[in-house]
Write a structure and sequence with these properties.
About 40% of the residues lie in helices and about 20% in strands. The protein starts with 8 loop residues before the first helix and ends with a helix.
C-alpha cells in the first residue's frame, strides 16, 4: 500500500527540499518520528537515489553527523521548448543546471510528423553525449497554446495549426519510458522566473512576446491554467479599432498588431524578414524599429493593465525576443502604471526576465522537480525501490 502519511518518505524529502541540508536527528525532530522510523525513511530514499550526502556537521566532540540533501543534482530531465520557428532541447538536472543543449531552427509551417521524431533522436543523442541517460527521470515539453493535460494533446495552438490534436507525450514515452510533463510556453516562462526568484510567496505573471504573445500566471507555486486551459491567452484578446487578421483566424487580436510576427510585417517595407532582424535593428538604434516595438509595448500594456488589476500580482516578468527589448519594456510599464488600479500597482514589480534563452530550461526542469519530487510521487517510487 502507498504510504502518504505526513511522516512518509515523501514528506521527509519535502522537508529537505524546503529547508536544505539537515542531519538525521534534525530531520527526526522536524518530522516528529522515532529514530528507527527515520532510519527506515532515509534508507528508502537512499535506495530510490533521492538523497545524497552533502557533507558533515561540525562536531563538538565525537563523531560528526552526516548532512543529508535532496539528490536533485544527480537526477536528470530532458526538456524541450517547441515554438513556431524554433525548438530548444536540453539535458538538465532538477536544479536547472544544463549539461547539454541543442537549438534548432524550424520551418515556418513545420509538421509534428517531422519535428517530433527529430526531437526524440536529438534528445537521445544529447542524453548519451552528456552521460546522463541512466539518471533520466522525466521529459518536460512546452508548446504555445492550450493543452489537454489529461489526454496529452495540444487543443488550440493558434500559431501552429498543424499541431492541433497532436499526441505530444506518446513518442517521448515510447522512446524513454519515463513520465512526460506538458506545459504552455508562457506558463513555463512564468514558472522559470518564479523558481529563479527563490519560489517567493507571491503571484507571478509572465508575459512572453516572441513570434506570438502569451501570458502565464503562477499562484501558490503552481501555474494557473484555467477551466479549459485558456488562462493567459492575452494575445488573442480583441482590441478596439483593429480589423487586422490574426494567425488564429479572427480579426483584431493583440497578436495581430503587437507580436513579433506583426512587427516583421510592419517593418517589411524597410527590409525586415525575421524577428531576429527586428531585435538587431533595435540594438542598432534604427528609429523605425524602436518606434514599432514601443507601440507594441503600449498595446500589450493596455491589455496587461486589466490583467494586473484583476490578478493583482507582485511580479510581472517579460520574456521572449521582443518582450525583453528596452523600448517594449519601457512602453509596457508606463502603460500599465497609467491604466491599472492604483491599489494593484502598490507593490507591483515589472521587469524583463534575466534568464534570457535559459528560461524554458529553468521552467521545465523546475516543473519536473516539483512533479517527480512531490510526496506522492516519491512515496510511489520508494515503494518500487529494491
Amino acid at each position: 500500500m502507498l504510504d502518504t502519511t505526513p511522516t512518509s518518505a515523501g514528506h521527509v524529502l519535502a522537508v529537505l527540499r524546503a529547508e536544505g541540508s539537515l542531519t538525521r536527528q534534525e530531520l527526526q525532530e522536524r518530522v516528529g518520528v522515532s529514530r528507527v522510523t527515520m532510519v527506515e525513511r532515509v534508507d528508502a530514499l537512499r535506495r530510490a537515489d533521492l538523497v545524497r550526502c552533502a557533507g558533515h556537521r561540525e562536531s563538538s566532540g565525537g563523531r560528526r553527523a552526516e548532512l543529508l540533501a535532496v539528490n536533485d543534482t544527480g537526477l536528470t530531465a530532458l526538456v524541450a521548448d517547441i515554438g513556431q520557428s524554433h525548438a530548444t532541447l536540453a539535458v538538465t538536472d532538477l536544479r536547472g543546471n544544463v549539461f547539454a543543449r541543442h537549438d534548432v531552427r524550424l520551418s515556418t509551417r513545420h509538421s509534428p510528423d517531422e519535428t517530433l521524431p527529430m526531437l526524440v533522436e536529438e534528445g537521445r543523442s544529447l542524453l548519451t553525449g552528456s552521460g546522463r541517460a541512466s539518471t533520466l527521470r522525466a521529459v518536460g515539453l512546452s508548446v504555445p497554446g492550450q493543452i489537454d493535460h489529461e489526454a496529452g494533446i495540444t487543443t488550440a495552438p493558434a500559431t501552429m495549426r498543424e499541431w492541433a490534436g497532436v499526441r505530444l507525450r506518446d513518442p517521448f514515452v515510447a522512446a524513454f519510458d519515463v513520465p512526460v510533463l506538458l506545459e504552455n510556453d508562457a506558463n513555463a516562462l512564468a514558472l522559470a522566473d518564479y523558481y529563479a526568484m527563490g519560489r517567493p510567496e507571491a503571484t507571478v505573471v509572465g508575459v512572453k512576446v516572441g513570434t506570438g504573445i502569451g501570458a502565464g500566471v503562477v499562484i501558490g507555486g503552481r501555474a494557473h491554467r484555467g477551466e479549459t486551459g485558456a488562462a493567459g491567452e492575452i494575445g488573442h484578446m480583441r482590441v478596439e479599432g483593429s480589423d487586422r487578421r490574426c494567425s488564429c483566424g479572427r480579426r483584431g487580436c493583440v497578436a495581430a498588431e503587437a507580436s513579433g510576427q506583426a512587427l516583421v510585417r510592419s517593418l517589411r517595407p524597410s527590409g525586415a524578414r525575421t524577428v531576429d532582424d527586428v531585435v538587431r535593428w533595435v540594438s542598432e538604434g534604427r528609429s523605425e524599429a524602436i518606434e514599432a516595438v514601443y507601440s507594441a509595448g503600449k498595446l500589450v500594456g493596455t491589455v496587461l493593465a486589466t490583467v494586473v488589476t484583476i490578478v493583482n500580482p507582485r511580479y510581472v516578468r517579460l520574456g521572449g525576443e521582443v518582450g525583453v527589448l528596452p523600448p517594449f519594456v519601457e512602453a509596457l510599464r508606463a502603460t500599465v502604471e497609467a491604466g491599472a488600479h492604483a491599489s494593484a500597482l502598490r507593490k507591483l514589480d515589472i521587469a524583463a526576465s534575466q534568464l534570457g534563452d535559459r528560461g524554458a530550461c529553468v521552467g521545465l526542469s523546475g516543473l519536473v522537480a516539483d512533479e517527480m519530487l512531490s510526496p506522492t510521487a516519491v512515496d510511489a517510487l520508494c515503494g518500487r525501490a529494491p
